[in-house]
Amino acid sequence: MAIPDFIRDLRADIGTKLLWLPGVTAVVLDDAGRVLLGRRVDTGGWSVIGGIPEPGEQPAETAVREVYEETAVRVVPEGVVLVEAMPPVRYPNGDECQFLDVTLRCRAVGGEARVNDDESLEVGWFSVDALPELDDYARTRIGKALAGGPTWFQGMAVPEEAGGTSDSLVQ
Q1: Cβ(153)–Cβ(171) below 8 Å
Q2: Cα distance between residue 145 and residue 107, in whole Å
Q3: Where does residue 72 fall: left (phi above 0), alpha (psi -120 to 50 degrees), or beta otherwise?
Q4: Residues 14, 38 contacting (CB under 8 angstroms)
Q5: Which of 31, 136, 164, 166 has its CA 20 to 30 A from that of 45?
Q6: pLDDT of residue 155
Q7: Cα–Cα distance, 122 to 101 (Å, whole number)
Q8: 169 band by pLDDT with thresholds 50, 70 and 90
Q9: High-pLDDT (> 90) share of the chain, %
Q10: Strand partners, 79
Q11: What are the respective helix, strand and coil percentages of the chain, to the nearest 5?
Q12: Is residue 28 helix, strand or coil?
């Protein structure tokens, strides 16, 4: 996967140490209710589209840019699906990152789905009842986007002074 220049510059100073980064995922749906997926070069697996915002870039702008860069499909973001801190990852080169993912539901408004950069092996539209094998990350995001509920986020413990118990969660 391409490493943005600003991250390459940071890595020159901090080496492979853990870097906290924003990430944006786009669950793209067309008028037929199909989901846009890309088969990733780095893993070989199918997934939803996503990437890292450029400094100062809004999450919706990132979703629009990343979807177009990877698939040549034009989208309009419609809402926030979930916000989640992901577990840390270590890449083969030793770099450690931890992402705060903002997933947006997006509607396709133009373009023809095709591989549009070097990050995807294939790109395609899939019926929800005929999705290829996907990891939990992609399945969760697609499920939440299709459910149309309020934005999902991980619950947090309710402090005792607010009436919580040891197993109370707010979500």
Answers
A1: yes
A2: 11
A3: left
A4: no
A5: 31
A6: 79
A7: 23
A8: very low
A9: 75
A10: 105
A11: 25, 40, 40
A12: strand
d(CA 28, CA 33) in angstroms, rounded, equals 9
- Is residue 91 within 8 A of residue 16, CB to CB? The reply is no
| Section 100-113 average pLDDT | 98
At residue 20, what is the residue type?
W
Cα–Cα dist 92/127, whole Å? 33
DSSP alpha helices (H): ranges in the chain? 5-14, 59-71, 136-147
Are the C-beta atoms of residues 126 and 113 closer than 8 Å to each other?
A: no
Give CA separation, 112 vs 15, 115, 116, 125, 151, in Å: 40, 10, 10, 10, 29
User: CA–CA separation, 16 vs 119, rounded Å?
Assistant: 22
The Cβ-side half-sphere exposure at 89, using a 13 Å CA radius, reads: 10
Contact 144, 37 (CB under 8 A): no
> Contact, 66 vs 50, CB < 8 A?
yes
Q: Which residue, 33, 34, 49, is CA-closest to 122?
A: 49
Do β-strands 35-40 and 46-47 pair in parallel, antiparallel, or remain unpaired?
antiparallel
Which of these, 111, 129, 93, lies nearest to 49 by C-alpha position?
Answer: 111
What is the value of pTM for the model shown?
A: 0.87
